[in-house]
Design goal:
CATH architecture of the largest domain: 3-Layer(aba) Sandwich
Helix content: 40-55%
CATH topology of the largest domain: Rossmann fold
CATH superfamily of the largest domain: P-loop containing nucleotide triphosphate hydrolases
Structural class: alpha/beta
Mean pLDDT: 85
Order of helices and strands: HHHHHHHHHHHHEHEHEEHHEHEHHEHEE
Distance between the termini: 89 Å
Number of helices: 20
Number of domains: 2
Shape: elongated
CATH class of the largest domain: Alpha Beta
Strand content: 5-15%
């Protein structure tokens, strides 16, 4: 084998012959690449190395570039996918590199999401990185508040690792966990017949529970809410949502894989008028688990509620405005794809034939400088025109009502405290009541929508 010091004195053209003759070790070729005597293109075009040999030769170069964050956002994901496809690295090889860079906040938020999407790291890995940084004193209070507001770290994560006084500032109501009683979805009853089933759908953290809390709290405030006890867990859930807003505290995130329903009657203008409605709320993880799945692959209770009831249905698609406020945030693509798929999935399996309305609710609208309704429509037209067109297509085909609502509960401060503003809740509630049927009797039977 030719010594490395001798090789360093040769030109690129002079290096090719001894390398092809097997007179240079793979480790020395790798060093020549790192030093710039040879390029990645030279290695790939001039020689025929096996995958195992390429891992030795080019692995250190790629590792160095990844560690030093030398790839742009545009090329990063393609490079990583190619490295995995070509066998240069496995996901396990890349995991410690990415963990270290996220720990030291070298990667952008967009890049971190890309890494999660590929499956090299998962949400638990990301959460543990942040917890370790807090325990080691690397984050100030503003960083912790940001992680809390984005839903990356939750109450149960923060309570044991930050000072008690700071924790109580973040959660003035104290440690409040959703104890819903039901251990698993099998304990939640089937939906009651002869009601309108209203589904709130959206990705994790999109504000579905806040939206529902706003409607229920407003209805309760004006004396129009009567929650039923056919599902005691749902009654407890609805009560907790209202209690939180009355305390001017945002509801905690719903437990992963939760699916829950709240049956209630909205009282009408006349004494005996009642509008029967069942709100179905599911954790974003449950909604996302329906993506690109067949009907037999989705969570059983989700399947039963969406396709096993003859009730008329209404869908609120909770679209998180904040996901679009961060440049290149790939959650935007996920939202678009998730909603596009679920609507087509509902049509394929016949649910749109029993659907009365599809509503896009742009949540966290207080984050926008212009919070007017017109601005909400312009925002959707600029980012989600394909989704709007799909809804209009179904509006025409199935004669469903199609609405767009901007929504905010009020402007929270950075610690999550806020003064409840019911303007949007009031507007949507009044539309909902005007749209929902009253309970009618015909030949002794309840009839919905005539």
């Amino acid at each position: 084998m030719i010594e490395l010091n001798v090789l360093r004195k040769l030109t690129k053209a002079q290096l090719i012959t001894p390398i092809k003759a097997g007179q240079v070790s793979k480790e020395d070729i790798s060093q020549l690449v790192v030093e710039g005597k040879l390029t990645e293109s030279d290695i790939n075009n001039e020689f025929s190395f096996t995958t195992a040999e390429l891992k030795i030769i080019l692995g250190p170069l790629y590792e160095d570039k990844l560690k030093r964050n030398l790839y742009s956002d545009e090329e990063f994901i393609d490079v990583v996918k190619k490295l995995l496809k070509d066998g240069i690295f496995t996901k396990e090889d890349l995991k410690p590199i990415f963990k270290e860079n996220i720990k030291h906040e070298i990667y952008s938020e967009y890049r971190t999401y890309e890494i999660l999407n590929i499956g090299i790291l998962n949400q638990d890995d990301l959460k543990q990185i942040h917890i370790d940084n807090i325990l080691q004193g690397h984050y100030d209070e503003n960083k912790i508040i940001d992680l809390k507001n984005k839903g990356i770290l939750e109450e149960h994560d923060l309570e044991p690792i930050i000072a008690e006084d700071f924790f109580l500032e973040l959660y003035p109501q104290g440690s409040k966990v959703w104890h819903l009683g039901a251990i698993d979805e099998s304990q939640i009853p089937d939906l009651q017949p002869n009601r309108v089933d209203v589904f709130t759908l959206g990705i994790s953290g999109s504000g579905k529970s806040c939206f529902l809390a706003g409607l229920l709290t407003y209805a309760d405030k004006i004396g129009k809410l009567s929650m039923l006890i056919d599902n005691t867990y749902g009654y407890d859930y609805g009560s907790k949502l209202i209690d939180n807003l009355n305390e001017e505290v945002l509801p905690p995130a719903t437990p992963v894989n939760l699916i829950q329903y709240i049956s209630c009657d909205f009282r009408g203008e006349k004494k005996d008028d009642k509008h029967p409605v069942t709100f179905i709320d599911m954790a974003g993880e449950n909604f996302q688990n329906c993506f690109a799945k067949s009907i037999n692959e989705i969570p059983p209770k989700v399947k039963k509620y969406l396709f096993g009831s003859n009730n008329r249905k209404l869908f609120f698609l909770c679209l998180d405005y904040q996901q679009d406020s961060v440049k290149n945030n790939n959650n935007r693509t996920r939202q678009k794809n998730q909603f596009d798929y679920i609507l087509k999935f509902l049509e394929k399996n016949g649910t749109l034939k029993t659907t009365e309305a599809i509503c896009i609710v742009v949540t966290k609208w207080d984050m926008c400088e212009d919070t007017s309704p017109d601005a909400g429509i312009k925002f959707l037209q600029s980012k989600y025109m394909s989704l709007i067109n799909l809804c209009k297509e179904y509006q025409e085909k199935y004669k469903v009502d199609f609405r767009i609502f901007p929504f905010s509960l009020g402007v929270p401060d950075k610690r999550g405290n806020f003064i409840y503003n019911n303007n949007d809740s009031s507007f949507i509630f009044k539309w909902l009541v005007s749209f929902l049927p009253k309970i009618k009797k015909a030949n002794g039977l309840l009839k919905i929508f005539g």
